[in-house]
């Protein structure tokens, strides 16, 4: 784009200096599982509740829309274990309103995540049709996927992790999969109908009713380490499942990565940052595209009141293709790029926002033509006393935080911080065709 065709607002930022940056590496506990299939096999062999699988039974296995570590391998392993016991498994896309709240869209989300019938070796049966299995005391309908309900048994499968919008005894995991994922759009809408702060109340009530009235055999939960690698596979009996899940949530919370700000021994970052640059947002990184447990930019005012990290400006550069157009998370940025806006599919985003009742997640921030102008807009408006010395971090996404770039002004504090190493030399931010090209290590 020549100077003659640049919008005037771009001209207002084009002289903004950008700080030099250096590649850094964070060190987190790295225990992980090398063989997901063996982990599933061992976990199921060690749990008495798996004996509920009988030869000839049709078994529905849930699969959500999250980017779970070793997701296709884990689903395939569960399918194989069910078949080895003489039953007939099939996978049910279980993701509430995601995938544009259509059966085809939900199958497409699984395909983007590598879960297809040829890969997992069993049918994927996708439908948005639900059946009512009861009503709560307030009259709210409790619904479950019809195909799963008609099966002889249901195996819940999900990652256990902190939720992005609330704190409760059970957050993201088997309880939420049961209440919202298997509830499809109608169930998810009911769960969210009283506002985001009430979601954990209805997750608990709906999950407990379904555990009593539906053929839930057991649940399989995974926990990941800070490097987004599989760290644990657990099998939880349907009896007492919600209580059994709770200590694993605490383990998952302790495992989460974080930005290198605030006390080293805290589970989460704290303090002030002038600019955060996030290369990619998307559903594979967080249900909200950009995990607020990392950025501390929450949709819920109740959660935001307890945020300990204050980021003055956040620039998001790209929407992951694997997110299938679902640009949730863009709203939590201050500025995005034109290429992110083009990839933003209102059909997917608006369906999600209307179901969750959190309309702010469908907002689009300031849009700049490219990475350079987006970062310059963030730096220019960050409020730093000297923007040429802005405290800036750049991360690939909010799930993978082993490597990050830090601005020159941050290097003294990072050099003195345990658990982080400056592994690259100071360099200018480099752009090709407006895209930031300072490289990440291979494979990251």
What's a concise summary of this model?
This protein has helices spanning 8-11, 36-45, 71-84, 103-112, 117-120, 146-150, 174-181, 184-192, 199-213, 241-255, 292-295, 301-304, 338-343, 346-356, 371-380, 411-415, and strands spanning 21-26, 58-63, 88-93, 130-135, 141-145, 153-159, 216-224, 230-237, 271-281, 309-319, 335-337, 366-368, 392-395, 403-407, 420-422, 431-432, 435-436. By secondary structure, the protein is an alpha/beta fold. The protein has 2 domains: 3-28 and 257-436, no CATH class; 36-255, LarA, N-terminal domain (Rossmann fold, 3-Layer(aba) Sandwich).
Report on the structure:
The structure is a single chain. By secondary structure, the protein is α/β, with parallel strands linked by helices. The chain folds into two domains: 3-28 and 257-436, no CATH class; 36-255, 3-Layer(aba) Sandwich (Rossmann fold). 30% of the residues lie in helices and 22% in strands. It is built from 16 helices and 17 strands. The chain has helices spanning 8-11, 36-45, 71-84, 103-112, 117-120, 146-150, 174-181, 184-192, 199-213, 241-255, 292-295, 301-304, 338-343, 346-356, 371-380, 411-415; strands at residues 21-26, 58-63, 88-93, 130-135, 141-145, 153-159, 216-224, 230-237, 271-281, 309-319, 335-337, 366-368, 392-395, 403-407, 420-422, 431-432, 435-436. It has an eight-stranded mixed β-sheet. Strands 3-2-6-7-8 form a five-stranded mixed β-sheet, with helices on both faces. Strands 4-5 form a two-stranded antiparallel ribbon. Helix 7 packs across helix 9.
């Amino acid at each position: 784009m020549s100077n003659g065709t640049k919008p005037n607002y771009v001209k207002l930022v084009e002289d903004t200096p950008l700080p030099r940056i250096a590649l850094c590496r964070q060190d987190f506990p790295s225990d992980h599982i090398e063989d997901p299939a063996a982990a599933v096999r061992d976990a199921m062999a060690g749990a008495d509740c798996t004996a509920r699988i009988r030869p000839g039974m049709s078994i529905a296995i849930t699969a959500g829309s999250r980017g779970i570590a070793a997701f296709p391998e884990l689903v395939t392993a569960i399918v194989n274990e069910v078949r080895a016991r003489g039953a007939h498994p099939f996978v049910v896309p279980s993701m509430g309103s995601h995938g544009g709240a259509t059966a085809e869209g939900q199958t497409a989300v699984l395909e983007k995540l590598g879960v297809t019938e040829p890969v997992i070796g069993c049918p994927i049966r996708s439908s948005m049709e639900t059946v009512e299995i009861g009503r709560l005391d307030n009259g709210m309908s409790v619904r479950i996927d019809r195909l799963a309900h008609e099966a002889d048994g249901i195996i819940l499968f999900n990652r256990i992790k902190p939720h992005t919008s609330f704190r409760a005894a059970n957050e993201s995991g088997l309880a939420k999969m049961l209440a919202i994922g298997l509830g499809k759009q109608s169930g998810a809408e009911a769960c969210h109908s009283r506002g985001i702060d009430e979601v954990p109340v209805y997750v608990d009530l709906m999950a407990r009713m379904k555990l009593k009235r539906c053929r839930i055999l057991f649940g399989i939960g995974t926990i990941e380490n800070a490097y987004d690698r599989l760290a644990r596979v657990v099998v939880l009996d349907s009896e007492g499942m919600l209580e059994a899940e709770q200590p694993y949530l605490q383990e998952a919370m302790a495992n989460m990565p974080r930005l290198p700000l605030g006390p080293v021994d805290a589970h989460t970052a704290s303090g002030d940052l002038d600019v955060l640059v996030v290369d990619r947002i998307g559903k594979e990184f967080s249900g909200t595209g950009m995990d607020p447990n990392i950025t501390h930019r929450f949709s819920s005012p109740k959660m935001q009141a307890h945020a300990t990290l204050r980021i003055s400006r956040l620039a998001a550069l790209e929407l992951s293709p694997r997110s299938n157009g679902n640009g949730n998370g863009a709203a939590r940025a201050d500025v995005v790029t034109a290429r992110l806006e083009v990839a933003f599919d209102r059909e997917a985003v608006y369906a999600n926002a209307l179901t969750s009742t959190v309309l702010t997640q469908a907002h689009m921030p300031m849009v700049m033509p490219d990475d350079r102008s987006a970062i310059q807009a963030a730096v220019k408006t960050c409020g730093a006393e000297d923007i040429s010395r802005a405290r800036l971090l750049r991360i690939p996404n909010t799930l993978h935080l082993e490597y990050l770039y830090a601005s020159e002004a941050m290097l003294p504090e990072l050099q003195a911080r345990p658990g982080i190493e400056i592994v690259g030399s100071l360099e200018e931010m480099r752009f090709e065709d407006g895209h930031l090209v300072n490289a990440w290590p291979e494979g990251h």
